[in-house]
Amino acid sequence: MTETLTILGLESSCDDTAAAVVRISHDHSPQILSSVVHGQTDLHESFGGVVPEIAARAHAEKLDICVKEALAQANMLFSGLDAIAVTSGPGLIGGVISGVMCAKGLAAGAGLPLIGVNHLAGHALTPRLTDQIAYPYLMLLVSGGHCQFLIVRGCNDFTRLGGTIDDAPGEAFDKTARLLGLPQPGGPAVESAAKTGDPSRYNLPRPLLDRPGCDMSFSGLKTAVLRARDQQVSEKGGLSLQDRADLCVGFQTAVRDVLAEKTRRALSLYLSESPETPAFAVAGGVAANQAIRAALETVSTDSGALFIAPPLALCTDNAAMIAYAGAELFVGGHRDDMALSARPRWPLDQASPAMLGSGKKGAKA
Ligand code: KG4
Ligand code: ZN
Predict the structure, then answer these.
(1) Is the CB of 218 under 6 A from ligand 1?
(2) Distance of alpha carbon 104 from alpha carbon 8, whole angstroms
(3) What is the C-alpha end-to-end distance of the chain, expressed in Å?
(4) Angle at CA of residue 117, ends 139 and 278, nearest 5°
(5) Ligand 1 atom at shortest distance from the alpha carbon of 145
(6) How many angstroms is it from 236 CA to the middle of ligand 1?
(7) Pocket test for ligand 1, best of 40, 182, 218, 286 (most atoms within 8 A of CB)
(8) Angle in degrees, CA 116, 122, 123, rounded to 5
(9) What's the gap in Å between 69 CA and the centre of ligand 1?
(10) Is 185 in the pocket of ligand 1 (CB under 6 A)?
């Protein structure tokens, strides 16, 4: 690469509408010139999950605003851009279509190349945006909609080692919070309640630890919380604050143990390929959990792999990751045109079998 590359990215695959401008200079160091995210939590709150039709309409209304804000914050005009990158899957199809249509209009109007980006690739390439780590590295995507281990070998080259066969861990945190009368999003609420809990009181199941491989399952764990809660209510007539804290820490510890053990196995598969500079990166809202993050860091450091956890704003859904992934694809010669379609499912690793499960936040690809 001889010149700088400036890319506008758009993201609208779930419940965040986002636009960002990212610049890559000749030495390949990326710079986020702006990153605007408009969340929709308030629109979906009363429904207990993301309502796809409401999400799609909100994206259609907010995309233009996000683009304007992102360009203004970056002090850019369309004439200063080299390309437009957009999430073209996987995700809630109405939202993905809103983003793709908007990007096509902007690209046609401004005469710029268009690049369709896989949303999961955006997450998976974030450690290169934030820490410029070398390929290949091991990645754990762990959020409300995603949970999978990937060996990232290039911007278009991923090997999936395993993932959830039902709920994503964030989804399980959210459902657990709902069962215990805690607010949404459930992760931070459960983590905070867990701080005063007794971890020895509830020994909840660690699903699929008895089976080889890196696949995971979290829906049974949530059912175990339901059973323990109902038993407590039938015996004592209700839940005390301490009961709730004990259940939260029991649940969180079970999720932590499953993620830590499966990470150990994924690391051992990855390290068996003798990468030159071994690195393990996590992304997604659940990686914000301090108990889980600390356990993953320990496993990684023990195995000799550098542990990377990008800042939370870049771990959760955003458009800077889409612009960055678009930039890597652009450098590799990738271009889309007006035939670019929106894909509800789009596995990163086409060679591995399709994942089961499709959670409240859309397909897990
Ligand atoms: O990555 P993210 O913002 O959105 C997607 O799901 O794509 O992740 C949100 C999820 C929610 O399910 C939320 O409950 C969970 O991440 N989460 C947490 C924590 N903070 C957010 N889970 C456990 N502990 C946390 N501190
Ligand atoms: Zn995401």
Answers:
(1) no
(2) 12
(3) 32
(4) 20
(5) 6
(6) 32
(7) 286
(8) 155
(9) 26
(10) yes
CB 330 less than 6 A from any atom of ligand 1: no
Question: What are the structure tokens assigned to 159, written together?
Answer: 């090997």
90 lines ligand 1 (CB under 6 A): no
What CATH class has 5-131+317-363? alpha beta
262 Cβ inside 6 Å of ligand 1: no
Minimal-distance CA residue to ligand 1 atom 10: 144
Ordered by start, the domain boundaries in the chain are: 5-131+317-363, 137-313
- Do 232 and 182 meet the contact criterion of CB atoms below 8 Å apart? no
Helices (H) and strands (E) in the chain, counts: 11, 12
Q: Give distance in angstroms: CA of 364 to centre of ligand 2.
A: 10
Å from CA of 59 to ligand 1 middle:
21
Residue type, 46: S
3-state percent helix, strand, coil for the chain, nearest multiple of 5:
45, 20, 35
pLDDT of the chain along its 365 residues, tens only? 558 999 999 999 988 899 999 999 877 789 999 999 998 777 777 776 777 888 888 888 899 999 999 999 999 999 999 999 999 999 889 999 999 999 999 999 999 999 999 999 999 999 999 999 999 999 999 988 889 999 999 999 999 999 999 999 999 999 999 999 998 889 999 999 999 999 999 999 999 998 999 999 999 999 999 999 999 999 999 999 999 999 999 999 999 999 999 999 999 999 999 999 999 999 988 998 999 999 999 999 999 999 999 998 898 889 999 999 999 999 999 999 999 999 998 988 877 766 654 444 444 44
**What is the atom index within ligand 1 of the atom nearest the CA of 144?**
6
Closest CA to 324 of 108, 37, 16, 32: 32
**CATH superfamily assigned to domain 137-313:** ATPase, nucleotide binding domain (3.30.420.40)
Q: Which atom of ligand 1 is nearest to the CA of 174?
A: 14
Cα dist from 14 to 19, 46, 98, 175, 363, whole Å: 14, 17, 11, 18, 10
